[in-house]
Amino acid sequence: MGLLNFHKNTFRHGVHPPEHKSDTNGLPIRQFPFAPLIILPMVQHIGAPSVIAVREGQEVIRGQLLAKAGGYVSVPLHAPVSGTVRKIANVPTISGKMSPGIYLETAPFSSQEVLEGAPVDVETASREEILQGIQDAGIVGLGGAAFPTHVKLKIPEGKNCEVLIINGVECEPYLTTDHRVMLEQGADIFMGIRYLLRATGAERAVIGIEANKQDAADHLAGMIPPDIPVEVQVVPVKYPQGAEKMLITAILGREVPSGGLPIEVGAVVVNVATTAEIGRLLPHGRGIQERVITITGPGVKKKGNYLIPIGTPLRYVLEQVGVDGNISEVYMGGPMMGVAVSNLDISIVKGASGIVAFTEKDVKRPQEIYPCIKCGACVDACPISLNPSKLGILAKFEAYEQMAEAYNLMDCFECGSCSYVCPSHIPLVQYFRMSKSMVRKRTAAKPNA
Amino acid sequence: MLNKTLNISTSPHIVKGLSTDAIMQNVVWALLPVALFAVYSFGMSALLVLLTTLASSVATEHFLCRFSKKKSTISDWSAAITGLLLGLTLPPNFPLWMAFFGGVIAIALGKFIFGGLGYNVFNPALVGRAVLQAAFPVAITTWYPAFLPNRFSTVSVSTFTLPFLEPAVDASTGATPLAAFKFDQVTTGTSELALGLISGSTGETCAVLILLGGLYLAARKMMNWRIPIAIFATVYVLSGILYLIDKQEYPSPVFMLFSGGLMLGAVFMATDMVASPITSLGVVIYGFIIGLLVVVIRIWGGLPEGVMYAILLANAISPHIDNMIRPRVYGTSKSKRS
Lengths: 449, 338
Known about the structure:
By secondary structure, chain A is of the alpha/beta class. Chain A has helices spanning 127-136, 149-153, 177-184, 186-200, 214-222, 244-252, 272-281, 314-321, 377-381, 388-396, 400-407, 417-421, 428-445; strands at residues 30-31, 37-41, 51-52, 59-60, 65-68, 77-78, 83-92, 98-106, 163-168, 204-210, 230-235, 267-271, 290-296, 304-309, 327-332, 339-340, 354-359. Chain A is built from 13 helices and 17 strands.
């Protein structure tokens, strides 16, 4: 730990991609129109798929339960609009796989009032009741991971949550979702923190915000309620500071052990938009129906931060905001870790924090891949001090076991900093994704493992 | 409008924009002032040596790629660096056929047999020079004086030596400052050394231009500045200690820094990314080893100059340094070894 004192307030290494946030960070959140047809996959989160609880032809009210949680690591799904269940069939998802899903036809001229359920009172509810309320609201990590939040908040037996970290870093270029949420939904965020403090038993909460959002930090710091132990901490701008482990290191100076969870160093990290959603939904017993998404990129005409119903088809979204005729690539998420979309018939899911569209001239994908010249740029970029150069060479030789055992491959969380800096344009992080899945497959295939 | 087929790609979808060929190209730009000064101080002979090694390196790379049915890799500019660097380490009056041979060896033995760019264990230019030193020990240590009045109109008599013949001995030869010190105990002034008003290999004489080239590359993050700094510091401290012990017997540390091929070697050759370690601590150790070997060879060895062997030996150790020096991975208690 002693060495870490040199790196106070941030983590080791990292990169500084151009931010491109000024296009949208001054634009207030606007409600997006309702699409005529809403497409809802049952796999919008990590874990078991939701189980459909409606039948074809059934009329549903906005906020009504459409699908139940498919287990503990799963969440229910609520109707984002009032309308009619048109079809229950497989729907396309971003991974390219089809998933069971619901086609919901929006009722025209409906007032779209939201159905409320049983409220969870922040003062009287028990830990378990709050966790149950979070699961019932269908809440998953809105920063992009889409991991069911109630699972993350469940403190294991014998462990103690000392600090609740609210992640308002938003280190991905282009995205301003969390920035706007912090500026506009402060009251919801602090209500959410009340729930989270009770649910985790944390002694205090820290809101971590990168220095490029000083206005949000000042705004939140100015409205901290006097009765809860919350502070705002501004951290230097550096990618991938929004990664859970990096933020813990930046704020607490502790390192989460390899293969371990944040709770092992007494921390739980929750995204700021997720926190706001908890603070808004739980007092009314509502389910999540919509989320804030930054729609931006050089290919988008009406860039902005929009409140979009879950399940809105991507094609509808892009038609509404208008896109450039030369549009070439569309990313769900930011340009560093986001996934390129091949099919505009997929829909907005709970984990989608941004949509970035690039035109042909913005996609500067190098044609030539040179051999690794061992310049060390990747070594200086890797936030967890791996040697991507060596790992890349081993991946070419398919030496997956050696990568995992001698070079800590499995610690890679695929931030892409190595690929970003590589002057030889070697798709390092792509090699590592493949190698990690190979290691997992081989480990699973071993009978004794 | 939205029926268009979208491209897909894997993240990250943006790149920093620095590319390997651009790095290599900039090394060539950084070497150009050094090469121009070489031509200015040594005249036509130096120009011919540089053009010969440049041409033979690039041509060798091109034809070897073609013979092995691969796409020619001369566009990555690395063969041009090798050619230019080799020429800069040779005496200006070096016979051209030998220089040509050196360029072929540098690329073929120094780089191509290892698998091309990125796989070479040693700095290719130094491999070429080492072979030349072994094959032509006299020609490579026959020095030509700088700033001859007729240097732009005539060339050295040894330049056009026919292949496989001993070169004619020039009427006017000059000793390098290191040789002068080693064999005749004559010290050369620091300003003359720094400004390159001396005899020596074509490109090693003007320390100021070499350092400027290095500063340019370091500022553009195309060179690991820790390597030359570690070498200079080691040489300065070690030779400084010796100088303090006996000022008659040992050269001054400043003389050690500015004489011979140390500047050129430390700034442009030891910094070969492929043949040097990858971590910050690794390169400091690597630089220390080079500095130590330079001092040991120069002071106690049989040769007046030791930069070439020092770098080649350190190149060989470099993969082992990388294996030993591994930064602690986030969340682990200690570094793993294999």
